[in-house]
Amino acid sequence: MLKKLKIGDFIIAISVLFLGFLPLIARHSSTAESFSIYLDGKKISRLSAGKDTTFSLDARLGKVIIEINDGRARVIESSCPEKICVRTGFIGKVGQSVACVPNKLLIVAEGKEKREKFDGILE
Amino acid sequence: MAYSSKKLARFSLYLAIALSLWVLEEFIPRPMPWLKPGFSYIAILLAMLDFDIKNGFAIGILRVFLGSLILGRLFSPSFILSLSGTIAALCVMSAFMISRGKFISLIGISIAGAFTHIAVQILVAGAIFYRIDAVIWLLPISTIWAIIAGAIVGIITEQVAAIQSTMKNAKI
Amino acid sequence: MKSKRLHIYIFLQIVFAIFIGCSENESVHSRRWIYFDTVVGLKIYGSPADNQSNKIFAIAKDEFAYWDSLLDVYSDKSGLFDLNSSPAGTVKISSDLAEILRQSLEWRALTDSALEPKIGHIVELWGIGKGKKYIPLQSSIDSALNLIEKSNLIFVDDTTAIISGDIRIDLGAFAKGFVVDRVYEKILPMCNNNPLIDGFLIDAGRNIRGWNRNRNFTIGIANPRGDGIVGEFELPQSFGCASAGDYERYFILDGIRYHHIFDSKNGYPARGANSCTVVAYDALTADALSTAGIILGENIEKIIDKSKISVILFFERNGKLENQSFGKVKFLK
Predict the structure, then answer these.
(1) Which of A32, A52, C53, C188 could form a disulfide with A109 if both were Cys (CB 3.0 to 4.6 A apart)?
(2) Is A117 touching C (CB cutoff 8 A)?
(3) What is the CATH number of the domain that holds B129?
């Protein structure tokens, strides 16, 4: 049976697989417009991705230094023992996040808030 | 289209097979209602081989109309989905059918058709009844289903076509 | 044969394209005008013929224009201006103006004078939004409050009222909601009877009411301190919603914000809440209660029926925005 399979069949199967999973790939490809920073589950700040900045904040275990550079964000220095957040490196696509569990710190890359999805807005 | 009685009998047979497989499939239990095996495409592909692409189209579209009539859902939303999926799949399959032979077998054609059918159904469903972004996540899992079901349909069709051609040769 | 086959292909491609083309998202026709010193607008959902939607737009525009000319306190041609400048005694009032006046007096009773339609003297004194940026002398505020206390408006029949004292009616807390309801009632039968129209949404500057045969509308609440959206909710079928707050017309002096919604108890800008959004069964109720929320703050809970009315209050505390909500509608997602 398998000898009936031709090279084109494989090409078709692979391209179909690619097309079918395209929405999953495309979903995470838009660049972040802003970064929301959560501490202890509360949103403490929302920073524009367009402005480069480096700042430190006092988390549960001590100082955490966060950098925003060229539309991406990362944790440079953390008071946590394992430094997983530092090793995560830069995030810059919508939906990506850096978490520092010991410090209960979370940085989430977010897209633009869409006003178009509303039928009306109470200004 | 003037049919000889022999040809008409064969056409009717293909249509009957496509129609009954399509209707019977409706009663097979499955995880999600739109994930059907698509066995009726065996008859459609065989008709395309035996006659030409035009007759394959006729059988594919007629089976949706007659089948929906039998199931009592003519012009209902699921009818629109079936019809749009079928027309798109027939277009894609017939385009590949022309280049069938050295590089593409019926298995690849069937996979392409199965994927087109299911993808267009999802897109049309999203566009007409829901929102595209609400249904697009169904596409990846449906794609895997389409490749498996499409391959099975392709293999069966390839086998039947082989038997048919040996029978034809034997007659001569 | 081959060209014939090609024709069939092209035909089917076209059929297929039509299938996809027909299935676009719902279409919206939208118009905007300037009335009540703000942008008012009407959106019609669905696919009515141009002359049908234009007719509805024209009716809505006329209705807005009519009420704007009747209720504009600053135009000497308006019915409200005439009323405010009439001497004490018996006056004849047009039935339309009488209707909104009666409603506003009912709200005054309902909110124990928190919503005071006679607040005009205080509004004129502060002149917020009319370019004035100062805090009036306490003696001026006291005399304005005294004038409010001594003036009165009592209806003797549908279109006759007795005025006592120097009255200054200000319908800022009622006018837009009231007019949204009038427009809503005018165009609802036309839209309901036209199967090509799926729904409509009236938006008159922080006052929204809509109707849709297929779905509920999603409304966003803009941040009263800065950009973005701080809340969103689904507007129940045929309901109205409104927002009021200290961010609409205000000035800041020595770090304190002075805004256009006044507390009739002391004559100063109200400090109950910084922003208030109300969802209610009509737009007038939502408009009146959203203003009442700024004055009463959390105490608004006592005067609302929480099974029919939902309220969210926003407070700015230590630079952060906090909120409190009552009622069935979920304001945050």
Answers:
(1) A32
(2) yes
(3) 1.10.1760.20
